[in-house]
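Review form for a predicted model. The reviewer records the input and the model, then writes brief findings.
Reviewer: anonymous (R2)
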Amino acid sequence: MSHGYPEMTGKEISAFKTRLLRPASTGKDGAWAFLLLPKAASDKLPRRGRTSVEGTINGYPFQATLDPDGQLGHWLKVSEALQDAAGASTGDMVEVQVSPAQPEPEPALPDDLLKALAASPAAKATWDSTTTIARLDWIHWVESAKQAKTRDRRVQNACEMLASGKKRVCCFDQSGYYSKSLSAPEAKD
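Model under review:
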């Protein structure tokens, strides 16, 4: 295999080089970095919102869920452990390969939504009958709230909508392009 990447047959693979960026604010998550996918790589993915991928950074394999960058593309949070394993630091050019994860892995359910679903059998029944992508969108909608009050309201509204049989969250721009509610982190100089 001349390209140096593991074989990922039957999938749309994007390979590119990009700079590993330092976020202006890491919050309480420690020393993480991020990278922006080129438009051509994002365009090969199945959706503009959150989507899961398999890939490599400098030949080191990873699986992750990409977040929308607000420009109809995606960005990837690169943990300190992944940076170390890939032999990369912020500021470095890295070789990246990504392809859509097949099937889309089941998303982790946030504790507040898990509790609310457990308290509403009707909402839980609808939740269980939705697709993985629909569940990913519900979680993304809840987690994209900027304030705790908004998040609490979204958890409550999600359970009410699910209890009424609604399987998809509406009125939520998963890409952040139209509402500008989602974007890649700001890079530090």
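Findings: The CA atoms of residues 5 and 59 lie 6 Å apart.
Further findings: Residues 111-163 form one domain.
Recommendation: see findings above.
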